[in-house]
Fold each of these.
Amino acid sequence: MPNPAADAPALVWFRDDLRLADQPALNAAVRSGRPVICLYVYDAGRSSGRGLGAASKWWLHHSLAALGASLEKIGARLDIIAGEHADLPQIAQSLGAGAVYWTRRYGGAQIACDAQVKKDLATTNIEAASFNGHLLREPWEVTTKLGGPMKVFTPFWRASQALGDIPAPLPAPKALTSGPWPKAAPKRTTLKALDLLPTKPDWADGLRAEWTPGEAGARARLQDFFHNGLANYADERDRPDRPSTSRLSPFLRFGDISPRTIWHSARHLEADKPALAKPVAKFLSEVGWREFAFHLLFHNPDLATRNYQARFDAFPWGEPDAKVLRAWQTGNTGYPIVDAGMRELWRTGFMHNRVRMVVASFLVKHLLIDWRVGEEWFWDTLCDADPANNPASWQWVAGSGADAAPYFRIFNPILQGERFDPDGDYVRAFVPELADIPAKFIHKPWEAPANVLANAGVRLGKTYPAPVVDHTKGRDRALAAFGALVKE
């Protein structure tokens, strides 16, 4: 039986849910009437088999700092341990906990870890309960008519919406009493001691200028999007040169805000302003794509390492040329829209979604480099890299994933730039050496007359690289490789 003592604390095990509002695990602890211990265990990826990338570590540091400050305001504290998630039952015992509450995760290793923790807690007479605080629907709730997993987004999203209303988000507690930290419990550490921030060198200036991690930052970002971006979202979301996207993905990644809060906030806004119905529907469908990615991960735990479509196991990926790969990573491919995207990523820990598709297609198809190489780079450099969206999106572009773009659909980086960055403002923001190139040539500077290049101070191959691969040749090579795969 669970520890019946009224003063036995309830332990809230924080992971990817670093907020107070709409936090079902925290809400359950408060409702229990017990003193509450808010705990974060940093295990450097040992429970999931994959440590956080450098940009994600930066975000985690600041999100934890924000959570700690929020808890202090309501009379509580955030305790931090460096250890292993598998040790949670022993930690709970040492704290004299009567209950442990947490938000569910959906990666294969994460599920296995949490299941073992719950099993071990049961043997120690400590109540254990997990909650959905990360998704609108649990991955197993949305099924085909035969009860199986969904493989295509549109019917998935239709089936998800048919399940009924999304529960309203829970309010944040206004006051909280923290339980004591016994001497027998493991030694706590400090956020600084986790060493999550870059120091030598400190490359995070661009991230600091761009982001305010944490719950307050998430709500401010949501409101800014509602006031300044949502109205044009349906028509301009593919324009990287315009502020028409939500940029909420890093906040969702670390649970600074819940999808239910976003959903209901958008629906309330639509009720007040019916003219926003179209952009709200489109925006929420993109939240739906996040749901679909976690649905895929739950049913395919090896999503980041194995082709969803097994036929791609025979695809003739080339051995990456180190120089060419480095040119892609650093934004020096000679294709301005690709280079702008990769430099935006390096500077800000983020990249516009349309440009993500372009740079991914370029790596996989123009350069014939395995999608997993690109997924690993994004994992390290994106603030919003999570175990579902990152691999699902890379497989979508590669053609190997669920509901994927056909492999023979190859993004033309020149046309993509001309269509979605027609004035070249996005390129100029991140590739300053091309700032004075006229819009007519900014996405294909190799076609600019010599006098235009000279007037702009551009010397191809010197101040800006020549293309690492000819577009037509790269496209033809990719189609030939795909053709060979189809014939096998």
Note: The chain has 20 helices and five strands.
Amino acid sequence: MTITLTEAANFRVKEMIREEKGENLFLRVGVGGGGCSGLTYGMGFDDRVVDGDQVFEQDGLKVVVDKNSAPLLNGVTIDFKQNLEGGGFTIDNPNAISTCGCGHSFKTAANEGEPSKQCDC
């Protein structure tokens, strides 16, 4: 399984971890149900690895993905873009066959997930 963080994303995540003052924190990336398309991305900090997690390191940043999310995130590229309104992470997922307008949810050929009754876009 591979997930790629661009240099900008890697830098921003490390910066955020320093701001949290969490020496043992790492980036956890996952997928849950919901959103307009059925599956939503989740990213956050964690300090515990559980059985089945896939762990890898990229340029000094530890990244963890749970076993259920791994097939849906294989090949994903995470970027961080800065603009006049601030900044945010973007996810390019080659497994997605459709995404919602804002890019926060998606579905794959193998997993359509459970769309929310109300779209968050």
Note: Helices lie at 7-20, 70-73.
Amino acid sequence: MKTTNIMIVGVGGQGTLLASRLLGHILPGMGYDVKISEVHGMSQRGGSVVTFVRYGSKVASPIIEKGEADYIIAFEQLEAARWLSYLKKGGKLITSSQQIDPMPVITGACGYPEGLDEKIKETGADLLCADILSLANKAGSPKSVNVVLLGVFARLTGIAPDLFKEAIDEIVKEKFREMNKTAFDLGYAIL
């Protein structure tokens, strides 16, 4: 089994860590060795957060180098662009079209970059960009963007939806389980 490298990138508070925990729960049960590395950044203040998830028959390190990510799952467009150099040739970038203003934009020091999805496509990246936030809101909470994106990832990779739903039952607080399962289903259905 070759090693698969996944980067989960977003802004503090978007649920990147829950997404990596769900994957980390599912993959060992599928017979994979899994390594996860969480880099928090300024997560408490809305800064960039990235998590590396690597799985295969034997994984030595959780770190993903530039040009090695098979998948980047981005919760926000600027984060997709920020981490694009980590995507390998032939890799897949799955991103929400959502835009969250970073501090320099909030303070007026600069503007949010325009046309990021077009600029990403110009690099030759295999991009799937969708209005994930609308699906999360439809599921019941904008905070379920993470699980909607996992639904898209599951569909692309062929990982059985039931495995994700079982992980949601085991990891997510009971009052949020059904909403997260709905979010997962909405993401799974967009392809």
Note: The mean pLDDT is 93.
